[in-house]
Amino acid sequence: MLIDYSVEKIPSTSHGTLRMLLPDGKSTILFDDTIRQIQKTIHLEQLGEYRLTAVFFSALSGKDSLERRFILTGEEYKVEMSARFERERRNYSDWKSKDSINSGRFTITKYSHPSPLVKMKYIRSSTGENNEFPGPLFIVKNESRDTLYGEWLPGYFWGTLSKWVEGKYVGNHSGQICTTWADEPPLYPDSIKPAWVASFGIKTPPGRYRFNLFYSTENNIKGSATKIYESETFRWWSSVQNWHLLTCEFETKPKDSFNPSSKH
Q: What is the distance between the alpha carbons of residues 104 and 205, in angstroms, rounded to a whole number?
């Protein structure tokens, strides 16, 4: 589990604590109150339910806490936990608001291997009938009973590219993300949908690549959080999400590189 914690944006009279209850019933403190920012990795050895409690304290707003739970089944390969405390506008939709409130953003993201019934295939090096987007283009086929959702918009499957360099895939290259596209339904069971890099594709010079695509069986925006609780002195934002990484390896040759004037 990767832990990302910060209370740096709030005066030094404030601090936080993160406690974890393990599946076997034992409790541990992941960091103490004296640390204002930390990033570290711990190894979760047990399967079952974990309970994480983020605690915030300041002389101004007193003490507040929020518990979130997640379950490890053995299919996960990474868990990310973020607890970040800061001062934000009380009316967060009003940019001119001068009244503020302490807030905590407490998120847990699990990353799991994809279902064998969700498959992806490389189609060609450009998207659209007239090569309007640089490639590559893929097809995602959902043979499972789950409805699948993309990272940014439910009905769009946009991913990133890693390139084969000196014996391994490196980088996580993407293009522009635009969330103002027209609504599209998610990927229902026994259906297919196209997938490509970001919203408008990306050029792929000759080489060997891996396309990395995250999908979820719940309608989430990756990394987002919703307002869970608010009092006169504190506001909590939180989410617990599970994302599945689907990959596809492919190779482009010199004749496959994007050419806006070429025709199929």
A: 43
Fill in the amino acid letter for 80.
Answer: E
Buried b (16+ CB within 10 A) or exposed e, 7-42: beebeeebbbbbbbbeeeeeeeebbeeeebeeeeee
> How far apart, in Å, are the Cα atoms of 123 and each of 25, 62, 86, 147, 253?
49, 57, 46, 23, 14
pTM of the model as a whole: 0.83
Listed in order, strand segments (DSSP E) in the chain are 2-6, 15-21, 27-31, 37-41, 48-58, 62-72, 76-89, 100-112, 118-127, 133-142, 157-165, 168-173, 191-197, 207-215, 226-230, 234-252
Name the amino acid, one letter, at 32.
D
164 vs 122, 208, 246, CA distance in Å?
16, 5, 17
Q: Under 8 Å CB-to-CB from 134, ≥6 apart: which residues? A: 126, 127, 200, 201, 202, 203, 204, 258
Among 110, 132, 100, 91, residue whose Cα is nearest residue 49: 110
Q: How does DSSP classify residue 255?
A: G
Distance of alpha carbon 65 from alpha carbon 51, whole angstroms: 13
Amino acid in position 185: P
pLDDT digits (tens, 9 = 90+) for 14-61: 888 999 999 999 999 988 877 788 899 999 999 999 999 999 998 877
* DSSP-derived secondary structure letter, 256: G
Q: Classify the C-alpha dihedral 163-165-170-173 as positive or negative.
A: negative
Q: Three-class SS of residue 127? A: strand
CB 246 within 8 A of CB 140: yes
